[in-house]
Amino acid sequence: MYSPPHAADSDSEGSLLSDVSASPPRRRSPPRPAPPPPPPPPPPKHRTRPAAPTKPKLKPTPPAASAPAPAPPPPPTLRAAALSDPHGLAARIAAGSALTAASGTASSSSFRRLVQSRNPSFDPATAFTAPASSAPSEVPSAAPRPPPTAATDAPPQTRPKRVHPNSVSEVAAASAAAEQPKRARGGSEGNFVRLNINGYGRRRTFKNSQAKRSTKCRSWRRQRAAGATPRSQGDEEGDLVAEALLEREKQAASDSVLEAVESVREDPSEQNLKSLLNAAYGHDSFRQGQLEAIQQIVAGESTMLVLPTGAGKSLCYQVPAMILPGLTLVVSPLLSLMVDQLRKLPAFLPGGLLASSQTSDEFHDTLQRLRAGEIKVLFVSPERFLNEEFLLIFRDTLPISLVAIDEAHCISEWSHNFRPSYLRLRASLLRRKLNVQCILAMTATATTQTLEEIMNALEIPSDNLIQTSQIRENLQLSISTSDNRLKDLMLLLKSPPFVDMRSIIVYCKFQAETDFVSKYLCDNNITAKSYHSGLLIKNRSRVQELFCSNKIRVFSYNFTEQPFLGSDGVDGYAMSKFLYQIFSSENTTGCICSLAKELTSRKFDIKEEVLLTILTQLEIGDQQYIRLLPQFSVTCTLYFHKTSPQLLADKDILIRSVLNRSEMKDGHYVFDIPRIANDLKITMNEVFDHLHKLKFSGEISFELKDPAYCYVILWRPDDFNALSANLTKWLSEVESSKISKLDAMFALANFAVKGCKRTGGCSGSQHTPCIQKKIMEYFSKDDGTSENDCRTQLQKSSPFLQADIKVFIQSNSFAKFTPRAVARIMHGISSPAFPSVTWSKNHFWGRYVEVDFPLVMEAAKAELVKLVGKGEQC
Q1: Under CATH, to which class is 288-467 assigned?
Q2: Distance (Å, whole) CA 846 – CA 828
Q3: Which pTM value belongs to this model?
Q4: How confident is the model at residue 236 (pLDDT cuts 50, 70, 90)?
Q5: Whether the Cβ atoms of residue 501 and residue 553 lie closer than 8 Å to each other
Q6: Which residues have a Cβ under 8 Å from the Cβ of 839 and sit 6 or more positions away?
Q7: Domain locations in the chain?
């Protein structure tokens, strides 16, 4: 705190800080006579603020001639040196003594400059020497001042900025800081707030790697900031010993696993397999079905395994992977499943993953590890089997001992989530292309008909079926109705037992609905995230990590009551037109052909999944008509940078073919990649490789668009009508199977709400016993259909149906309708040619959802025939 000169500049008697002042200490003796007037002062200097009033100058008294010269003081101790004033005021404190403020203190450089600037004749050495006749001073004499330090003799422009020396708080703070040594602060310490707004406050970037502190240094700073004791050399040595012991334990565990594996290879008995299980996983016994499945696989027998979710199906291929000499190939339909299973592999079982989302470096690194034998378990998607180059990797150099197909129910077209890419996973393909003799098919839920379809496709003997109960005893099943889904969802989440649950999945019908429900929950203080295929891969991975770490909640929402009857079906004449497109006269036998997915889907009003299903059936049916290739973007736009197109075409045959086959659009060359491949008699992969080489050399750049189904024609059908009829009938049966499954699910919900008598453990919305009973009945049936067909509850007629269809067709005469398209619109079902974004605004959208779909379709067909007869509709 600043103290002006006219105020009191000393504390009470005995204070250690009382004499640290810019003015000399006052005496307690009577005042001396007034000195003669001083000489006139020098001209005043310019000041930034008014000068404070000062006391009159004291006339110095010369020392006595007989006084002996005092001895020089001893050098200051470490304690005295550490307490020097940071503002340039020298203060020397002796242990256990008061502050000496005689000539030594009074003649400090700061005080000396202050006084001599006002009185040049002032000598601090003799200014305060008391005469012999005067009373003794209470301030003892001190030795002559020590030689000036470097700080006091430094030029004025280099000296630190001084504050007022009477500020006692400044001196006290300096003394307190000197008594407790400080540590050096890091570059980011002292900032109690660090924000990142508009790009400011970003993390420091290090252009020189030497400026970046090591992790060890950061750990030391964190420990000191937390008040922890710094780690000594003994602690570090202890850590090294602990790490060495841990490595020794890991090596011992690895050796025990290897010994157990060798024992199983010699004798795959139950005891040896249990020893391997204990050494590798720490378990003493297998779960139901695991031991039998592992023994069959180790013996080289293909196996069909049906275990509930979470019952340990992955163990049934991990243990054989340790025992069998070759590679274990795991086929999984979803990337998230593959990543999760790869992370859960034991440390001694190295694994790898091949996915389309990988970068080129990651893909080639996995292939390099695969060829080097560093991967024991490889996860791939079913679409990977369309790539001939992928299949060639395993033909000669990499033997495969086991192919494990996860979610094997996707193979069967009668399954609830059939995938066309799984149709190619036949035993004939796996044995012909990969030389695989042992196949493991795994699923959690499958009806009798689905199991038969899977085992026939993979040629698994019926005796090798291992199936346990598909009912999870730890699940609580409840069904309830709702008039306001969002409101009831909030009430349900905030009521027991859901209020105490950490993770809840909310299932929605559409992606937009998923985002809407997630936002609604967040607005009501419930942590929620949306998760669907429309999100970026990194965002989906982040949501999955949050869900697995119990930071997001889980529930089921929006049960689909409306069966999508007719959504996957294809009319006979639409099928015929599509077949003529596949085998058009331009597509000759042996050439590479392509069908743009989006354009073809809109043209024939057939969903992309159904298009792929038809193409797959043409490949694996009784007669193989085509051979499917990997899907590519087939339209390429080429840009030239260095050499002119004509000069580059003289050197490069592919560029020459591009110039001959391309169209000019906005000054650039646009061409079809399959056409170039057919002209040069090369594969599409070779075309892409050549374009990438030219791109890396800086000659060209290119853009790709129009994803397409690619195939090669092997055989042209003799009778298009018969082939069209067979495919249409097959798709109709698949569609009916899906509708029956959905009807069975709705019938179960309807029974629980309206038909359950609340006996045998059922109460309120809890229907676990009766639902489990219905589920067991469903899976025990041969065809998996429901006795209580929900379509019998739909209306069989409507007096206004025919008239409304006529009005609808006439008011939308610009569109080319089919009976199925009209029926879809009347049921509120979107299709590629008539999307809901456009047609949901129509007055007739979903008007006859309560009328049976085939009935609406027949009425639309009759009305279209009438209009065609009148020449109004074609």
Answers
A1: alpha beta
A2: 4
A3: 0.66
A4: low
A5: yes
A6: 825, 830, 845
A7: 1-35+46-63+75-154+163-170, 250-285, 288-467, 485-548, 584-716, 722-793, 801-869
